Amino acid sequence: MEQTLFGIMMYFVAMFTIGGIYAIIVLGLNMHWGVSGLFNAGIAGFFAIGAYTTAILTTPTSPKHLGGFDLPVWLGMLGSMVTAGIVAYGVGRICLRLRADYLAIATIGIAEIFRLVLKNETWMTNGTRGITNVPRPFEDFATPWSQIAFLGVVILVVAATYFIVERALDAPWGRVMRAIRENDTAAEAAGKNVVRFRLQAFVFGAMFMGLGGAMTAHAFKFIGPEATEPLLTTFLVWVMLIIGGSGNNRGAILGAIVVWAIWSMTQLVTGFLPPDWAVRASLLRVFLVGLLLQVMLQNFSGGLIPEKSPKIGDRQKQTPAP
Amino acid sequence: MLEFINFYLLPGLVLGCIYTLGAIGVSLLFGIMRFAHFAHGDMMTLGAYLALAVVAVTGWPTITAIPLAMLGTAAAAIFIDRFAYRPFRASPTIIIVIASFGVALMVRSVIQIGWGLEIESYATGIQRPLIFFDSLRLSKNHIQILVSTVLLVTAMHYFLSRTKTGKAMRAMSDDPDLARITGIDTERVVTWTWIIGAGLAAAAGVFVGMDTQLNTFMGWNLLLPVFAAAILGGIGRPYGAIAGGMVIGLAEELSTYPWITDAPLLSPGYKTGVAFGIMIILLIWRPSGLFRGRVF
Amino acid sequence: MTLLEATGMTGGYGEMDILDSVHMSVDKGEIVSIIGPNGAGKSTAMKAIFGIVHLRQGRVIFDGDDITNAATQTQVQRGMAYVPQERNIFPNLSVHENLEMGAFSRNDDITASLDHVYELFPPLREKMRQPAGELSGGQRQMVAIGRALMVTPKLLMLDEPTAGLSPKFMAEIFDRIIAVNSTGIGILMVEQNARQALEISHRGYVLATGRNRFTDAGANLLANEEVTKSFLGG
User: Fold this and answer.
1) Which of C50, C93, C100 is opposite residue B174, by nearest beta carbon?
2) Which of A276-295 are b and which e, b meaning 16 or more Cβ less than 10 Å from the residue's Cβ?
3) Is residue C229 part of a domain?
4) Is residue B237 very low, low, confident or very high in pLDDT (cuts 50, 70, 90)?
5) Of C77, C100, C151, the CB nearest to B167
6) What is the 3-state secondary structure (H, E, C) of chain C?
7) What ipTM does this complex have?
8) C178 found inside a domain
9) What is the domain extent for residue A33?
10) What is the residue-wise DSSP string for chain B?
């Protein structure tokens, strides 16, 4: 009995850990899509860059891949954000002037090229075998405490991310971004450098996607190219944002937790089925997530917590944007 | 020289045919419905598996199963359009793109539930290539693919240039608002666009299965090169898509030929990256495509 | 006999009303012009009649039927044709195909109509196989009007048919409009070249800020000092 309880507790710890990591990525996507209207369909690419950067920076030296440099975990995570940001700057410089669909296609293409590089450049990434021995903070603790402490780290990072993006959105910068999303020609006419603002938002959001990737590598103590499959990263993150409420950071976090809970709990259920059925049931799960997305898009396009539209009264108080 | 033709040029042409058939649909759908159809790759997969079912049940040669696979896929596309895309006709483009992303996943999981995750193939055993002039090796499958593609593209050309509905499709691709004002039945045009687009995608899927094998990710993996071909040819220009498909198919295969030294020009692991690379360069330098399609 | 009768038209795009209780009518076989300054709601009034702009209030009666806010496709089938000011041809379709598209809603033989259009606009016959997008501005306008005539309309609505044309082409288009009208087709047009438009019109409406300002016979409007001073540039 006690063991079952313990198992259930550990299950929830794991669920919230991964759900929390997703929340970081969804907050990044909300910066792109919800706030700035940038259709980034290459989330997996920035995720992968973040994950591999921290893996290379923090693992002990290994002949199998570049490095490792044995740096502390926080430095690895910082490095992931910086690398993802730099790459996003490069990608953004060339892609952001594309129309939405084209941007989506271009970002998917770039993400796939990253994946090819990670698979093929064995000297750097150990190819399809991936990078092992990625350190996890508090991994030396005894079993429940190690996982719980790491969950604490995740919650802290989610809270910090939330705080930062909320501040950015309440600042004049966030209002300019929203204005650009609603009507870029009008914003341009009002003297805003639309391209520069979009680039800033793109880099900003991508840094959190990189951070999410880094946290994932630490959580599993391993990163391989399969972890960057578009299904589990790009698509699921999009579903989370749409279901949670695009444009609203709380919605983004809620969407991440809810969708991940559904996703992982159905996994739990399929675990009890005979193997043949389990495979089919897990496929059915993908179908149901697609269906859920359809239902949400058709009936509740605002998501669970829709974006707050600024009230007329608030507008009086706003200071003019620079 | 013969090695070049047998192992690089011919496979390039075959791949080009496959991309062409996919890209025509993407291009037409983009022109008429104004969105990038992310489920197009999985339409190809569906076509390939429907043909597999026909072959399994009837024992016919694969090539004769194509018309049925095309019909089935077209019917599925019309059904999907009715329930998953039509509600978003008046919504911002992005919503329908996201919806198509979800549809891609749903179609794939239906295929996986129905046929399982194992790799399948139409015919067992090794097929001997036909040998011409002592050394020109042509497999029967390749001949069938090349000939069928020519037939399908010719039929499409006839449809677009001679029939009222085909002309209306081109008109709507030119200007949907004007098409509506003119009194063109736009929903009928949309239905036909799905029939053509999904039908050709199904044929392309069967060809992939004939050329290699079937797996449930085959279409998804083809999606980006197909988009690349459509963009290269100019969005909304089905004839440009033919050129785009051929260029991308040949570029992929020829990129691994030892052009300069004895080593392949590009490591085969990066072969699929060629299409993405061309596409991204194109999006940046010439978003209207080589043949000046529409830029939205 | 009244062909079109629009009364109390109020509406516009989204929340904003552009038209304020506008009325307008066209009799059978009549040429009617709508003139007025920019932003007066001329094009909007025409689009509202055709059903592209939503009317909050008011009624549009065409040929005895209430067609207020009806779907465009049914408007065309009822015998109403509309030529927008811009983007009024299919550039990648040949001239001939453009005309065929005009007859999309018809299921009968269209050769007589095609001949009629080619007789009306002889330059089009020479260029029938060329993509319409390659034609000159005046010829494109001919394609657009020809396309609209292919539905054998009772009422032809033209939004600034001579905009951006040289004086020579302008005169030719007006001449062709008279020719179309002589076959019994009613014509409602919005025109910036107000003087020339009123000269060939039976009646004219002067709109300003979304309201009717003057309504009179074309010649009378040209003779009206207030109209010439305020709306025809003196």
Assistant:
1) C93
2) eeebbbbbbbbbebbbbbbe
3) yes
4) confident
5) C100
6) CEEEEEEEEEECCCCCCCEEEEEEEEECCCEEEEECCCCCCHHHHHHHHHCCCCEEEEEEEECCEECCCCCHHHHHHHCEEEECCCCCCCCCCEHHHHHHHHCCCCCCCCHHHHHHHHHHCHHHHHCCCCEHHHCCHHHHHHHHHHHHHCCCCCEEEEECCCCCCCHHHHHHHHHHHHHHHHCCCEEEEECCCHHHHHHHCCEEEEEECCEEEEEEEHHHHHHCHHHHHHHCCC
7) 0.92
8) no
9) 2-229
10) -HHHIIIIIHHHHHHHHHHHHHHHHHHHHHHHH-S--TTHHHHHHHHHHHHHHHHHHH---HHHHHHHHHHHHHHHHHHHIIIIIGGGTTS-HHHHHHHHHHHHHHHHHHHHHHH-SS-B-SS-SPPPPEEETTTEEE-HHHHHHHHHHHHHHHHHHHHHHHSHHHHHHHHHHH-HHHHHHHT--HHHHHHHHHHHHHHHHHHHHHHHHHHS-B-TTHHHHHHHHHHHHHHHH-TT-HHHHHHHHHHHHHHHHHTTS-SSSSS-SS-GGGHHHHHHHHHHHHHHH-TTTTTT----
Domain at B2-116+133-285: CATH architecture:
Orthogonal Bundle (1.10)
Residues of chain C neighbouring B189 (CB-CB closer than 8 A): none
Residue with tokens 């020609």: A185
Q: What is the pLDDT of residue B295?
A: 42
C158 contacts on B by Cβ (under 8 Å): none
- Check CB contact under 8 Å for C104 and B185: yes
Q: What are the pLDDT digits (tens) for A156-206? A: 999 999 999 999 988 999 888 888 888 888 888 888 888 899 999 999 999
Kindly state whether B282 is in contact with chain A, defined as any CB-CB distance less than 8 angstroms. no
Indicate whether C70 belongs to any domain: yes
pLDDT (0 to 100) of residue A309: 62
pLDDT in tens, B60-105: 889 999 999 999 999 999 999 999 999 998 887 778 888 998 899 8
- What would the pLDDT profile of C121-165 be if each residue is shown by its tens digit? 999 999 999 999 999 999 999 999 999 999 999 999 999 999 888
Number of domains in chain A: 1
Contacts of C73 in chain B (CB under 8 A): 180, 183, 185
Residue C45 belongs to some domain of the structure? yes
The number of domains in chain C is 1
Region class of B257: left (phi > 0), else alpha (psi between -120 and 50), else beta:
beta
Going from N- to C-terminal start, the domains of chain B cover 2-116+133-285
Could you read off the pLDDT of B252-274 as tens digits, one per residue?
A: 988 888 777 777 777 777 887 88
pLDDT grade for A319, boundaries at 50, 70 and 90: very low
Which chains share 3+ C-beta pairs under 8 angstroms with B? A, C
The pLDDT of residue A97? 77
- Please report, rounded to a whole number, the percentage of residues in chain C having pLDDT higher than 70: 100
Q: Do chains C and A touch (3 or more CB pairs under 8 A)?
A: no
Say which CATH number the domain at C3 has. 3.40.50.300
Residue B290 pLDDT level (bands cut at 50, 70, 90): low
Per-residue model confidence as pLDDT tens digits over C176-225: 999 999 999 999 999 988 899 999 999 999 999 999 999 999 889 999 98
**Cross-strand partners of C19:** C11
C104 touches B at CB < 8 Å: yes
Domain that holds residue C211: 1-79+195-234
